[in-house]
Protein backbone atom coordinates (compact mmCIF):
# COMPACT_ATOMS: atom_id res chain seq x y z
CA UNK A 1 0.00 0.00 0.00
CA UNK A 2 1.21 3.48 -0.92
CA UNK A 3 1.06 5.06 2.54
CA UNK A 4 3.41 2.41 3.93
CA UNK A 5 6.11 4.23 1.94
CA UNK A 6 5.14 7.59 3.49
CA UNK A 7 5.50 8.46 7.17
CA UNK A 8 4.12 11.81 8.37
CA UNK A 9 6.49 13.85 10.55
CA UNK A 10 5.79 15.37 13.97
CA UNK A 11 2.05 15.80 14.65
CA UNK A 12 0.86 15.34 11.07
CA UNK A 13 -1.87 12.90 10.07
CA UNK A 14 -2.34 11.39 6.59
CA UNK A 15 -5.99 10.76 5.69
CA UNK A 16 -7.96 9.38 2.77
CA UNK A 17 -11.20 11.29 2.24
CA UNK A 18 -14.46 9.44 1.71
CA UNK A 19 -15.68 9.46 -1.89
CA UNK A 20 -18.28 12.18 -2.59
CA UNK A 21 -21.77 11.01 -3.44
CA UNK A 22 -22.27 11.46 -7.18
CA UNK A 23 -25.74 9.93 -7.43
CA UNK A 24 -28.79 10.66 -5.27
CA UNK A 25 -30.82 7.88 -3.64
CA UNK A 26 -33.28 8.30 -6.51
CA UNK A 27 -30.53 7.65 -9.06
CA UNK A 28 -30.04 11.25 -10.27
CA UNK A 29 -26.44 12.13 -11.22
CA UNK A 30 -25.15 15.15 -9.28
CA UNK A 31 -22.97 17.76 -10.99
CA UNK A 32 -19.65 18.35 -9.22
CA UNK A 33 -20.75 21.80 -8.01
CA UNK A 34 -23.68 20.41 -6.04
CA UNK A 35 -21.73 17.56 -4.47
CA UNK A 36 -21.04 18.43 -0.85
CA UNK A 37 -17.49 18.96 0.34
CA UNK A 38 -16.21 15.70 1.78
CA UNK A 39 -15.29 16.39 5.39
CA UNK A 40 -14.97 12.79 6.57
CA UNK A 41 -11.85 10.72 6.14
CA UNK A 42 -10.06 7.61 7.34
CA UNK A 43 -6.68 7.97 9.04
CA UNK A 44 -4.08 5.99 7.07
CA UNK A 45 -0.82 7.10 8.79
CA UNK A 46 0.22 9.25 11.75
CA UNK A 47 3.44 10.93 12.80
CA UNK A 48 5.07 10.22 16.17
CA UNK A 49 3.71 13.43 17.71
CA UNK A 50 5.15 16.79 18.72
CA UNK A 51 7.42 17.78 21.58
CA UNK A 52 5.78 19.89 24.29
CA UNK A 53 7.40 22.71 26.30
CA UNK A 54 8.80 20.23 28.85
CA UNK A 55 10.49 18.26 26.07
CA UNK A 56 8.16 15.28 26.34
CA UNK A 57 6.64 13.67 23.25
CA UNK A 58 2.93 14.50 22.90
CA UNK A 59 1.47 11.66 20.80
CA UNK A 60 -1.06 12.29 18.02
CA UNK A 61 -4.68 12.05 19.22
CA UNK A 62 -5.96 9.78 16.41
CA UNK A 63 -4.99 6.26 15.33
CA UNK A 64 -4.71 4.56 11.95
CA UNK A 65 -8.13 3.28 10.84
CA UNK A 66 -10.18 5.85 12.77
CA UNK A 67 -12.81 7.94 10.97
CA UNK A 68 -12.33 11.68 11.48
CA UNK A 69 -14.05 14.98 10.72
CA UNK A 70 -11.92 17.48 8.77
CA UNK A 71 -12.13 21.27 8.50
CA UNK A 72 -13.70 22.56 5.27
CA UNK A 73 -10.42 24.10 4.13
CA UNK A 74 -6.78 23.27 4.69
CA UNK A 75 -4.66 20.18 4.48
CA UNK A 76 -1.93 19.40 1.99
CA UNK A 77 -2.77 17.13 -0.94
CA UNK A 78 -0.38 14.20 -1.36
CA UNK A 79 -0.60 11.85 -4.36
CA UNK A 80 0.68 8.34 -3.66
CA UNK A 81 0.31 5.61 -6.30
CA UNK A 82 -2.24 7.75 -8.21
CA UNK A 83 -4.53 8.14 -5.16
CA UNK A 84 -5.23 11.42 -3.37
CA UNK A 85 -4.43 11.67 0.32
CA UNK A 86 -4.32 14.74 2.57
CA UNK A 87 -1.97 15.76 5.36
CA UNK A 88 -3.38 17.65 8.34
CA UNK A 89 -1.87 18.69 11.64
CA UNK A 90 -3.35 16.77 14.55
CA UNK A 91 -4.78 20.00 16.03
CA UNK A 92 -6.62 20.77 12.75
CA UNK A 93 -8.70 17.58 12.88
CA UNK A 94 -12.07 18.53 14.33
CA UNK A 95 -13.07 15.22 15.86
CA UNK A 96 -13.31 11.48 15.43
CA UNK A 97 -16.31 9.21 15.04
CA UNK A 98 -16.88 6.72 17.86
CA UNK A 99 -18.50 3.42 16.90
From TrEMBL:
What UniProt keywords apply to this chain's record, in alphabetical order? Chaperone
Taxonomically, the superkingdom here is Eukaryota
Record's keyword annotation contains Chaperone? yes
- What SMART domains does the record point to? Cpn10
GO cellular component annotations, sorted alphabetically?
mitochondrial matrix
Q: Which InterPro entries match?
A: Chaperonin_GroES (IPR020818), Chaperonin_GroES_sf (IPR037124), Chaprnonin_Cpn10_CS (IPR018369), GroES-like_sf (IPR011032)
Recall the GO molecular function terms of this protein's record. ATP binding; metal ion binding; protein folding chaperone; protein-folding chaperone binding; unfolded protein binding
- Pfam families from the entry? Cpn10 (PF00166)
The similarity comment for this entry is:
Belongs to the GroES chaperonin family.
Name the job this protein performs: Co-chaperonin implicated in mitochondrial protein import and macromolecular assembly. Together with Hsp60, facilitates the correct folding of imported proteins. May also prevent misfolding and promote the refolding and proper assembly of unfolded polypeptides generated under stress conditions in the mitochondrial matrix. The functional units of these chaperonins consist of heptameric rings of the large subunit Hsp60, which function as a back-to-back double ring.
Q: How does it assemble?
A: Homoheptamer arranged in a ring structure. 2 heptameric Hsp10 rings interact with a Hsp60 tetradecamer in the structure of a back-to-back double heptameric ring to form the symmetrical football complex.
Return the protein name.
10 kDa heat shock protein, mitochondrial
